[in-house]
Amino acid sequence: MAKARLSRGSSNIRWIETYCRIPEGRFVGQPVRLRTWQKKEIRRIYDNPHGTRTAILSFARKNAKTSLAAFLLLLHLCGPEAVPNSQLFSTALSRDQAAVLFALAAKIVRMSPEISAVVGVRDSGKQLYCDELGTLYRALSADAPTAFGLSPVFVVHDELGQVRGERSQLFEAMETAAGAQARPLSIIISTQAPTDKDLLSILIDDALAGHDPRVVVSLYTAPPADDPFLVKTIKKANPAYGDFLNAEEVKRQADEARRMPAREAAFRNLVLNQRINQVSPFVAPSAWKACGLPPAADAFRRGRVRIGLDLSARHDLTALVYATIVDGARHVRAEFFAPRVGIDDRSLRDRVPYDLWAAQGYITATDGASVDYETVAIRLCELCDEYDVEAIAYDRWRMDVLKAELARLNVELPLVPFGQGFKDMTPALEGLESDLLNARLRHGNNPVLTMCAANAVVVPDDAGNRKLSKARSTGRIDGLVALAMTYTTTSVEPTGYWPAERIAVI
User: Fold this and answer.
1) Are 41 and 172 contacting, i.e. CB atoms less than 8 angstroms apart?
2) Is the pLDDT of residue 500 over 60?
3) pLDDT tens digits for 235-290?
4) Cβ neighbour number for residue 320 with a 10 Å cutoff
5) pTM
6) Which of 2, 54, 166, 310 is the most exposed place for a label (fewest CB within 10 A)?
7) Which of 201, 219, 237 finishes a domain?
8) What is the four-CA torsion angle of 422, 424, 425, 427, rounded to 10 degrees?
9) Of 219, 237, 259, which residue is a domain's last?
10) Residues 395 and 491 in one domain
11) Neighbours of 383 (CB within 10 A)
């Protein structure tokens, strides 16, 4: 009776276990014996009836993610998946990270008599090559020269969760370059990113939604509601727990996180593979989402309006947020201004889609290479004409430039200074925090404002007062600063004007 033919995934498993060696650790040099969960992941990739274009594997640190990626790399370099004369790559955020996968793959090559007979190693260039097949592997990093012009048939994106924001120039370059291949395959293997707005999170969420059957995803993560310090919770994110992941060491880390709350965020992200920002943000994502209703269409005509204005350096993001209280809720709209020239470069620098947001109308792109303060001044005038604006709270920094524009327009507006220190920010943040916790805010999920809220970090003084810190935050927070400024506690006159701050009519 003829033997049943092995599936593509099973054939690849057999090749790995036949020719690969364990590159490091307690069993270094021994033949690889893939665990059941590793075999399942390989079959998910190669036995997909739709043909896999992208595979996302996410689990906690120290579960041999990189070793598994190295085995798959060698499958495509010199094994049954190899395509003659093809290019293979791995990507990472830094040169040091890029070197990790190369180093493990090179160790496997050198330990295997069969593989080392056909694969050469170039340590200086972080390259592996098979002359017989004409295949070449290179390790690339985001801080290396451009990756455009390449044509990869196989790519490993290593620790993509380290990319902050929605974009990675290297990731986009490699993914678009693979379009020239008949059957390209990308492997994304990483611990989760900290926030929903980071590139890996976006890719995982899209894959879990099942939009493309050619994208397979395996997410090993502990549910946020589970007790983070129980072994059964830890095992959900760590398939190698108690095997080649040292259970006692993980328990020690859990005990430290239990004793020291400052360590819990890192423990949740790195050990439980949860989306937890290790720098604790001011706004909890769940609280922000709960306040995502749009402002009522007539809210700003029914209530008195306060505006917060955070001016930028001329080449960055200026935020204008206005709010009113109607029917027991604070209704909020946010507008942003940025110079049109250089917006693509700033999108890459900050890893956020300013260009897309400008096209969608969330950012007003002003002509030139710097923010046009005249445009901001005119917009303030329009809002004051349209609504009952009782206060425009502003940071004194660069306000002299805007005041000059207002004077040139021959207008006076209800301007009130708002300091960025503990004195003014503490009560404002308390008011904002209370509205968030009690779901009294309606911000409409403006994506730019949402980005700012996700990035914002506060710092305390010895008395427990708090202020927003741009230096400690993980990205732009201008919108949240402007939102906080709408909570100004400065008393206002019935007319809504402050004589000491009026702009002289010229």
Assistant:
1) no
2) no
3) 999 999 988 888 999 999 998 888 876 678 788 889 999 987 666 678 877 788 88
4) 23
5) 0.63
6) 2
7) 219
8) 110
9) 219
10) yes
11) 19
| pLDDT tens track for 8-60 | 999 999 999 999 999 987 788 899 999 999 999 999 999 999 999 999 999 99
**Inter-helix orientation angle 478-485/422-437, to 10°:** 90
Q: Are residues 437 and 335 in the same domain?
A: yes
SS (H, E, C) 213-265: CCEEEEECCCCCCCCCCCHHHHHHHCCCECCCECHHHHHHHHHHHHHCHHHHH
Residue 458, burial from CB neighbour count under 10 angstroms (0-12, 13-18, 19+): buried
Strand order in the sheet with 215-219: 120-122, 127-130, 135-141, 87-92, 152-158, 185-189, 54-58, 215-219
Single-letter residue type at 273: N
Q: Quick check: 495 pLDDT over 50?
A: no
Q: Tell me the β-bridge partners of 441.
A: 330
Q: Are 481 and 308 in contact (CB under 8 A)?
A: yes
**Would you state the structure tokens that stand for residue 323, as one six-digit string?**
């709010």
Dig out the tokens for 467 from the structure.
Answer: 């202020």
Answer whether 34's CB lies under 8 Å from 16's CB. yes
Ramachandran category for residue 397: left, alpha or beta (phi over 0 → left; psi -120 to 50 → alpha) = beta
pLDDT in tens, 144-172: 555 556 889 999 999 999 888 888 888 99
What range defines the domain where residue 90 resides? 8-219
User: H or E segment at 330?
Assistant: strand 329-339
Whether 19 and 120 map to the same domain: the answer is yes
| Closest of 344, 334, 337 to residue 363, by C-alpha | 337
Three-point CA angle 380, 384, 385, nearest 5°? 115
